[in-house]
Amino acid sequence: xxxxxxxxxxxxxxxxxxxxxxxxxxxxxxxxxxxxxxxxxxxxxxxxxxxxxxxxxxxxxxxxxxxxxxxxxxxxxxxxxxxxxxxxxxxxxxxxxxxxxxxxxxxxxxxxxxxxxxxxxxxxxxxxxxxxxxxxxxxxxxxxxxxxxxxxxxxxxxxxxxxxxxxxxxxxxxxxxxxxxxxxxxxxxxxxxxxxxxxxxxxxxxxxxxxxxxxxxxxxxxxxxxxxxxxxxxxxxxxxxxxxxxxxxxxxxxxxxxxxxxxxxx
Length: 266
Fold this sequence. Notes:
The chain is an alpha+beta fold.
């Protein structure tokens, strides 16, 4: 490691002010992504702004027809929340499948979304439910938030404060885990909220999370696994590495979408 300044604000407003004064600073939440790259000196911020004392950034509540989750809320808290289980059980499936107990009890929803790892689970839930990401400056629709691999619409001095998930009538998540890391080689989130049908995929695309419009169109006629039976997506644009080829990932998208639909309609 190397020397850097360390700050521990107690409110989101204080954190935003510190970020404005230290433009090279990094925000620290769970630290699962930031600390390893700092150890490898792939990131060398001049300051760390630790958000863990900002109580106004954590919490889960039902507001109207949406579940609102604070950015600092741990994965385990979302997975175990009775509010989430009762109102939107498909969302509870997502953090329950992340990593291992250590990761789930330390990692945060805001950190996962802000980092936008191409194999992370929460981006699929956000895109698959049409969530709204709320920052200290504005509200951003999930369709506009994820802009590419490790890339988002967040601007300088902008901090995610909460995420608003609209309650879907039917929703579910299914993923094919990497056996060591627990990351999604492919993960598929499906949802039905009125006429809004969504199928979002993580882990497969070379440009990060994406929606499968061909599946969505087919599911508008009937929200059922049979509606996309035999359908596939092109292998072009899919990730290919030592773990799985582009063709295999493209095949998995269809398989996992049908499994998620079976869960959602059970």
